[in-house]
Amino acid sequence: MNSNLLLDNPRPTVAAPALRTKAELRSALADARRAGQTIGLVPTMGYLHEGHLSLIRAARAECDLVVMSLFVNPTQFGPGEDLDRYPRDEERDLRLAGEAGADLVFAPPVEEVYAPGASTVVEVTGSLTGVLDGDPQSRGPEHFRGVTTVVAKLFNIVGPDVAYFGQKDAQQAVVIRRMARDLDFPVRIEVMPTVREADGLAMSSRNAYLEPADRERATALSRALAAAERGACAGSLSGGLGAARRELEEAGIEPEYLEARDAETLEPVEALEGRPVLVAVAARVGSARLIDNVLIQPSSNSNFDSPNF
Ligand code: AMP
Questions:
Q1: How many whole angstroms from 189 Cα to the centroid of ligand 1?
Q2: How far apart are CA 240 and CA 167, in angstroms?
Q3: Distance of CA 301 from the midpoint of ligand 1 (Å)
């Protein structure tokens, strides 16, 4: 859709159509591609919230055609993880996606994505996928192998010019950037800021698992990250991490990890030394496993100063 067409015909706020097969999607995109229109892709596992919608709106603002994928990807869930109970509400997702500006939703069944006997994977090896969530004590590198395999497939199926990801899953964004670079995918990767609830909790589909008391305790994660950032900006990253640990402890939360790492290489760091630092946390709160992070720029203002924090 070119911009004049859009101005002449304001976008109706209706549910986005769901396409189930690769063939349907390719044919729906063929004209746009031939006409040289730009295609934006927003990969999601659904149960949409404002975080997802911020990605769709960013794509809408920049691209002629916006495709959201809606696929709970089994290969990124380990045994004993929450694949079976992952929250789903497709009808609501299609409505919200359409209202936010998605033109199409690619919502394939599992067998359309993974043909019987599928035996090819895409894996970013080495230090990016073996730490934090990729640590074998945590979700393990298999998690990221599932992510990169499905995202590579989505890139091949959709052929986007731009793909949008959230800073909420900071390590995933770093890994996908590396994959796109290493495999020469002709796609620009955009990473958008984490959208938070008014009390600071990072929005997540998994927040639906939180009982009211745990929902309250979960706010300690963003308080901990704010404390880490304050310490780092005051010249003591390790002091900040200590304060963060205390915030979690007071809420009775034992982190799976709470670590400061170089935001690009994911190497551990001890201090702010002129490069962006990622402080990332994962913790089980009630029956939800939550992750959150703060990206600390060497000379930036606090990420937690925003009025809605
Ligand atoms: P998911 O459905 O959880 O796989 O997320 C789909 C995309 O939305 C990923 O790129 C996430 O990083 C992004 N996302 C999830 N939560 C948020 C959030 N609170 N703010 C911004 N982006 C998010």
A1: 14
A2: 21
A3: 23
178-230 residue pLDDT tens: 999 999 999 999 999 999 999 999 999 999 999 999 999 999 999 999 999 99
Q: Where are the alpha helices (DSSP H) in the chain?
A: 3-8, 22-34, 50-62, 90-100, 110-113, 141-158, 170-182, 212-217, 219-233, 237-250
Distance 7 CA to ligand 1 centre (A): 29
Q: What is the value of pTM for the model shown?
A: 0.94
Residues with beta carbon inside 6 Å of ligand 1? 44-45, 51-52, 54-55, 165-166, 168-169, 192, 194-195, 202-205
Please check whether residue 89 is in contact with residue 47, taking contact to mean a CB–CB distance below 8 angstroms. Answer: yes
Q: Which domains does the chain have, with CATH numbers?
A: 5-192 (3.40.50.620), 205-296 (3.30.1300.10)
